[in-house]
Amino acid sequence: MRTKYLLRLLIFLVVLTTNVAVAQQFGKTGAIQGIDQLFNDQQFGKTGAIQAIDQQSDNTEATQAIDHIVAVVNGECITRQELDEVLKVSINQLQKQGIQPPANDVLESQLLEREILTRVQLQLAGEIGMTISDTELERAVNRIADRNKMTKEEFSSVLERDGISYDKFRGEIRKEMLLVRLKDREVIKKIKISEGEVDNFLHTQENSSGSADEYHLSHIMVRIPDQASVAKIESRHQRAETALAKLKNGDDFAQVAAEFSDAADALQGGRLGWRPATQLPAKFTELLKSMKPGELTPIIQSPSGLHILKLLERRGGKEDTVVLIDQSHVRHILIRAGEITSETEARSRIIRLKERLDNGADFEELAQLHSEDPSASQGGDLGWISPGDTVAEFEQTMNKLQIGLVSEPVQTTFGWHLIQVIERRTKDVSIEQQRREASKAIRARKSDAAFQEWLQQLRDRAYVEYRSEED
Predict the structure, then answer these.
(1) Burial label, 126 (beta-carbon count in 10 A; 0-12, 13-18, 19+)
(2) 44 vs 97, higher pLDDT
């Protein structure tokens, strides 16, 4: 049981961090954006990979039912067997959390819609040629094994012992990596934040009370489709009002969320976790700042739909303090491995470059000629690097280096590196930290709304045909 729990946790972390790393160009800007994405993505609940593990371990002896098509999504079929498997997983998941599942037909309708949303995203990824290479996938699986302190073979044996097919596991990890990468490409990277927005945000924070507060929240979201008819909009409002009435009548929030919410975290009871006031829409914070724990908001309308929030707890956030950090001025040479260049070839190339540097070759010149990172044109110069700006393997090696020396070859998710520290300093980054936090908060606000809007547009463009058993 403990092993299975650790595997689930590590799969969740590795899938997210792997996709963040692969999706971004190397360097501190990409790393900061990656951290933002990691925190934003955590609200969407348990990943399909983890659900697949639950599904296989809990339903290894499930009987095969007579199959038929329940929906066609842009020509791709969703079968009764597939939907039944997801339904069983979801019911088990709710029961393990102590949440009473809604009626089967209600839950089935919710899950079918979520499966449709997943399919249209994966179809888009295929249309634009987005793939996860076997090399990238293998790295992700190897990191999961490493963090469990197992070899790849031992890890595979543990999966098999728990009733989890290794090939199925790899397939689910690949799918989750694709979904996160697609969101990064289609939504996150398109969010622009101007210096003026940051200035306005900081000015507003200085002149408002409670801006440092954090709220522990649960929520229900009822999505309203783009260009919905008047009748459709009215029915969605009625749905939200019914949910709110049940809550006011004393029904359990998690059960109502599972029944009524269109958010991806509905089967986790609608839990959002702790959210800084700065990362919530103004409409939300205006209501929350005067609420007591246990209270509900009225129905709140936003571009993505209708919301009901429950305040579970509140606490004061961190006040501004002086922030001193150690920074390193770094340059590097990167050789990427992928479909064209194998791991062995990439490693051989980086070893040959290290030998040339040891024999007196100029680092800047070799970086310009051979590095496969955007920094090559600057001789591999990455500028001043702060803690957390780079992936762990890079940072650990960088921190151990003496100034002027070149590291041994280092492997990260990006490929093979040679690293050189030019100089070090300690800097007061209080202002930069404030602006970075402000930018992160603005990005979180924008990305939540932008992702829901993009997802709804994707759904509206899809051709979906529902089939009954008689069809």
Answers:
(1) exposed
(2) 97
Scan for tokens 């957390």, then name that residue.
388
Phi, psi (5° rounding) for residue 267? -80, -5
pLDDT digits (tens, 9 = 90+) for 305-344: 899 999 999 887 655 556 688 999 999 999 998 778 888 9
Distance CA(414)–CA(26), nearest Å, equals 8
324-428 folds as: Chitinase A; domain 3 (3.10.50)
**What class, spelled out in words, does domain 213-317 have in CATH?**
alpha beta
Sign of CA dihedral 360, 361, 364, 370: negative
Of 52, 60, 88, the C-alpha closest to 163 is: 60
pTM as predicted? 0.60
Q: What gap in Å lies between CA 374 and CA 27, rounded to an integer?
A: 9
| Domains 213-317 and 324-428 agree in fold | yes
Distance CA 366, CA 368 (A): 5
- Superfamily of the domain at 2-190: Porin chaperone SurA, peptide-binding domain (1.10.4030.10)
Which of 335, 330, 332 is CA-nearest to residue 351?
A: 335
